[in-house]
Amino acid sequence: MKSSFFRSGTRLAFLSLAAATVSTASMLAGAAPATTTTTTTTTAAPTITPQQMIESFEGTFGVHPGQRRNHIKGTCAAGEFVGTADAAALSRSPLFTGKPIPIVARFSLGGGNPDVPDAAPAPRGMALEFRLAGGGLQHITMINVPIFAAGSPASFRDAIDASKPDPKTGMPDPEKLKAYVASHPDAKPLIDLSSHHTPTANYYQTPYFSIHTFKFVDAKGVEHPVKWRFIPRDGVKELSAAEMKAAPHDFLEKNLIERTQKGPAVWDMIVYVGEPGDSLDNPTLAWPETRKHFTAGTLTISQATPQKGAACEKINFDPLIMADGIAPTNDPILLFRSPAYAVSFAKRLSGQ
To answer: Is 70 exceeded by the pLDDT of residue 35?
Structure first.
């Protein structure tokens, strides 16, 4: 995608298209956006089914048999995670015993286009499967923005549908996108945030955010609302406009593989603890940076490979696969992701 597009009158169309791929431009050098604890009003919309959601992705991005419907372009990786005693005080999860836990990871670009250029402002994603003792699993799926593009599944589907390319131009219809934004105020926080950031230079120079609020459950059964982010020790680097224009079509996978050949890439898991009044079920809202936070663990990625035939390729990174000690909130987007992922997973396993 050419840099002139970002400066043109179709910028609004780009922003909404990016929102429909799960977030807007690659953003945030480790910092969250302006925050609020008030509730964002969303436009009433009919209930949709997971099947309808996946059909919308297929309608906008096309059908690529045997592949994911979203975050289709990805790279497999492996490593380990070691939790801290600070986290163990709030959660009885086996993630935080202090013992190394094997990890299968997948880094990816948002959207359903397998040919998206790596410098495009699609969100970077990191999905983790923690392989626990006794065969248990814990999944964590994140993208590199702290908030989501919609407050409900129906609103998100509207964004995807509005972003369907016009056959004549190969681009979304700006008028449809303007109408979507005007009628969906829940899209505004992420659209506003997107104007200040460009894509990150590498998967390993990217922070990743939980987006949703979760609950840590301690040894006494007390629940603590939390959000988390994984901050890279390599630092955060965004591409300049010149670098975006000059970048090769594919570089994220190559750079990650080369980085891990030199030594492990490391992220610190930082957990933020919510306070009364913080939104627990609206993923379009962030919490204030002043919330209590601490290091909950360290992720070390020691190996990366192309995903074809590798361990991550066939994993369904369902974010509701959780071990005891971590639980979901009533966030409607979070709860919808599991059945929607299941539809996509079934299709790709059957070669559809």
So the answer is: no
